[in-house]
Amino acid sequence: MDIEKLEIDRFVQQAQTMYRRIADLYQNANTLPLTPNLLPQAFMELGTASEIVQLATEKLYQQNEELLETRNLVEAEHQRYQDLFEFAPDGYLVSDVQGVILQANRTAARLLNVSQQFLAGKPMINFITLEDRHRFRYELVQLAQSDRVRELTLRLQQRNGECFDAAFTVAAVRNLEGKASAFRWLLRDITQRQQGSLVPFNIDCDLSFDRPVHQHSKGEIIPNSWQAIWYVCRGFVKLSTLCETGEEVLVGLAGVGMIFGSDMTSLKTYQATALSDVELVSISLSEIAATPMLSHALLPKFKQRLRQTESFLVLVGRRRVQDRLYDLLRLLKREIGQTVAEGTRLNVRLTHEELANACCTTRVTITRLINKLQQQGKISFDSKKHLILKDID
C-alpha cells in the first residue's frame, strides 16, 4: 500500500469519526437538557472538521497539479514519437492481424500514392499485386505464430496502377496473453536502392551491404524464405532432407559467401540448420531478376552450390562405405577445411550420426571406420574435437 493511499484512508477515518461525533452532539442536543458545555464543544468539533476538509482540499489540489504536469509530459512525449512516426524517411504501417491498416505515416501514403486518411481502414491486400496475394495471406498466418521479425519482398500496386517492388520488415505486437494483436510494417521501395547502385558488381563484393542481418544460434532451424535466398555472412549451415525411412540425409553445407534457399531445390523436405552461430541476409528473387549486375555477382555462387550438390550425389553412388567416407572427407576438406600445421582442420564439428547420414550408412559403421583411419594416422582430433585430415587426398 503506497503513501497516498494511506493518507486517503486516514482522511476517511478522520471524517467518519467527525461525522459520528457531530451526530452524537446533535442527538444529545435533542434528547438531553441543554448544558453550558454543549455549544463550545460543537464549535470545536466543527472547527476540527473544517481543518480536516481544508487539509484534504490542499492535498487534492496538489495532487491535481502533479497529475496535470504528468499528463502534459506524457502528451509531449506522445507528440514527439508521433512526429518521428509521421516524418520518418521509410514507410510505416500499423495493421490488425487480418492486415487491415490502422495507421500509416506520410511516406507510406506517398509510396502508395494515396492520402493518409484514405489508407486508414483499408486492407493491405488491396495494394498487393494479384500474383503475390496468396503469399501475403500465408505471411499473415506465419507472423501471428512467430515471435521473429520477418523480412519479405512483395510487389505493390499504387492507386494509379503503377507497380513497384517493396521490401517489408514486419513485427507482431502481442497482448498480455502472448497473442498477436497487431502488426508493424516498415516499407521500403527497393527499386530506389537498385537505381542508386548501378556501379558494376565485383564478384567478391559484400552482398550483405545495406541489408538487415538475421542471426541464428548453433542448432537452430533456419526458416525457409519465400521467393528469396539466404546469403551466409558468418558461420556454417547444414542443408538436409528426409529419406523415406524418416532419417535425415545431408545434402549440402553453406559457409561464408555461399547461398542456399528452398527456391533452389525441388526437394519436398528441405531443412537448414545452423552448425554454429550464423549471420545471414535475405536477397529477394525479384531483386535478383531486376538487377542484372546482382545476378552476375550471384552466378558463381549458384554454380558453387550446384557443384557441391553434384559432389554429394556422386558420393552416394559409390558402392563401398569406405569409399563414400573418403569422398565425403575430401569434400569437407575442400568446402570447410582450414590449413593448420598438422594438416587440414574441419572448421565445423560433424557428429558420427551426421557423417553416417551423408554416407547412407549406420553410425556404428562410421565410428569403426573413423577409429581405423585414426589408428592409421590419416586423421586426428584437436583439443576441441575438430577433425584434422592428414593423409586424405
Word description of this protein:
The protein has 11 helices and 17 strands. It is of the alpha+beta class. The chain has 4 domains: 3-86; 91-195, 2-Layer Sandwich (Beta-Lactamase); 213-303, Jelly Rolls, CATH 2.60.120.10; 321-389, Winged helix-like DNA-binding domain superfamily/Winged helix DNA-binding domain (Arc Repressor Mutant, subunit A, Orthogonal Bundle). It has a 5-stranded antiparallel sheet.
Can you tell me the CATH class of the largest domain? Alpha Beta
Q: Could you say what the CATH architecture of the largest domain is? A: 2-Layer Sandwich
For the record, give the distance between the C-alpha atoms at the N and C termini, rounded to a whole number. Answer: 77 Å
CATH topology of the largest domain: Beta-Lactamase
The H-level CATH homologous superfamily of the largest domain, spelled out, is PAS domain
Strand arrangement within the widest β-sheet reads 2-1-5-4-3
Domains (count): 4
Question: What is the H-and-E element order?
Answer: HHEEHHHEEEHEEEEEEEEHHHEEHHEE
Helix content: 40-55%
| Count of alpha and pi helical runs | 11
Mean pLDDT: 80
The Cα radius of gyration reads: 36 Å
What characteristic shape results from the CA principal axes? Answer: elongated
Largest sheet, in brief, is: 5 strands, antiparallel
**Strand fraction band?**
15-25%
Number of strands: 17
Oligomer: single chain
